[in-house]
Amino acid sequence: MKKRLSPLSGAFMGIVYTFLYAPIVVMIIFSFNSAKSTTNFEGFSLKWYEELFRKPEVIQALLNTLILALASAAIATVLGTLAAVGINMIKNKRISSGMMMVTNIPMMNPDIVTGVSLMLLFVFVGRLIGASEMLSFTTLLIAHVTFNLPYVILNVLPKIKGMDGSLVEAAMDLGCTPVKAFFKVVLPEIMPGIFSGALMAFTLSLDDFVISYFTSGADFQTLPLYMYSITRKNVKPDLYALSTIVFIVILLLLLLSNVIQIKSEKKNINKK
């Protein structure tokens, strides 16, 4: 029997969601304002979106962000999947628990601590090897892969644990090598988890600011860093348009990830 939501609980949830999403709704509305005013809505217009994409620095920042997000998500997905397989193969519960604890640390650690520590590491290593530039696209990519890895592992590992182990044994009995059994049996079974992890890694990389701020070089600027640099000078309506686009893209990616997760759960239920 389903429990009904009490009026008090409903009112409280309404207040919470209003505080969470009212600023975003206001931002989206004023991104279509025909006037430059950020307080009075004078008419519907797409002028700020048009002006936004006339700026070459915005296009370059967008391309940089997409390149970084795709590259870091791809690397983190491969490494995270292999790490999840390795953790699942550990039979000792203490070692396995220790590995999971280490995996969770980057997620629990504040972004500013992660960013500063990675920056110090990159500068230290850069001085040791005599690099001309301490921070660059490479350091930024390593940083993004680092904080994306735990999310991929935590998406893939439950899928591996939920698999029927006899399938792999049957494949090997039929002549498959361990590697071939992985690609033929394990990989198709855990693909929803891999895809969800890749989407989450892409999304997190797309809108990261704090860690990128500390680990990026002067020659590579992502969209969040660009947005920060222009807000320090003056907030213009085209920034509302840019923020709206980022919000909608991330929202669509999260919805896609949830749809994949729901379909995967239904598939597992039907198998049982």
End-to-end Cα distance, whole Å, is: 24 Å
Helix content: over 70%
User: In terms of per-residue confidence, which ranges show pLDDT below 50 for 5 or more consecutive residues?
Assistant: none
Per DSSP, the total helix count is 11
* Overall pLDDT confidence: 83
Shape designation:
globular
* Sheet having the most strands: none
The string of secondary-structure elements, in order, is HHHHHHHHHHH
Q: What is the SS-derived class?
A: mainly alpha
Strand content: under 5%
Radius of gyration, taken over Cα atoms and rounded to an integer in Å: 23 Å
Total strands: the figure is 0
Task: Please provide a written account of the structure.
With 272 residues, the protein is mainly α. The protein has eleven helices and no strands. Helix 3 crosses helix 6, helix 7 packs across helix 8 and helix 8 packs antiparallel against helix 11. The relative contact order is 0.13.
